[in-house]
Amino acid sequence: MFDTMEVLASGLSVARLRVNTIASNFANAQTTRTEDGGPYKRRDVVQIARPVKSHFASVLDRMTLAKPTVAAVVEDQSPPRLVYDPGHPDANKDGYVAYPNINTVQSMTDLMSATRLYQANLSAMNAVKRMMRDATQIAMRF
Predict the structure, then answer these.
(1) Best CA proximity match to 16, nearest among 119, 94, 140
(2) Which of 62, 88, 92, 132 is most exposed, with the fewest beta carbons within 10 Å of its own?
(3) What tens digit of pLDDT does each residue of 31-76 get?
(4) Phi and psi of 71, rounded to 5°?
């Protein structure tokens, strides 16, 4: 059960990072000028699954326990969204302003997904804690 708790804790951490990254993207959806110059670039979390060696390998030999891990947080390399606004201080010579390539509808869907993933990991962790508590109570009776 401790392996399961480790996997769930890692899942909580990855989901939290995804939520924070998406929130940062939302907050900067209209940022046309950054310290690096140009518009803000959307960031995405790249997540991988790392196998976990289980103490019950003989029992769980057909099951693979994998811990979610962040491989990287990458910046979107797609071109910015150009909007014609010649009065904007960041407009180019043709009157176009470069905005971040952030689709707020897609970002909201991603945020809901990350939030649900966090909630699912938290529910599973609470279930494992209850099972551990119940197992301890049963063991103390014998």
Answers:
(1) 119
(2) 62
(3) 999 998 899 999 999 999 887 766 655 555 556 677 888 999 999 9
(4) -85, -40
Question: What is the pLDDT at residue 23?
Answer: 95
DSSP 3-state assignment of 103? coil
Both structure tokens of 118: 């966090």
> Which domain does 18 fall in, by range?
2-141
Q: What pLDDT shows up at residue 61? A: 54
Report pLDDT for 7. 86
- Contact indicator for 40, 12 with CB cutoff of 8 Å: no
CB 100 within 8 A of CB 42: yes
Tokens standing for 69?
Answer: 């891990």
* Total of domains in the chain: 1
- Whose tokens are 């529910």? That residue is 123
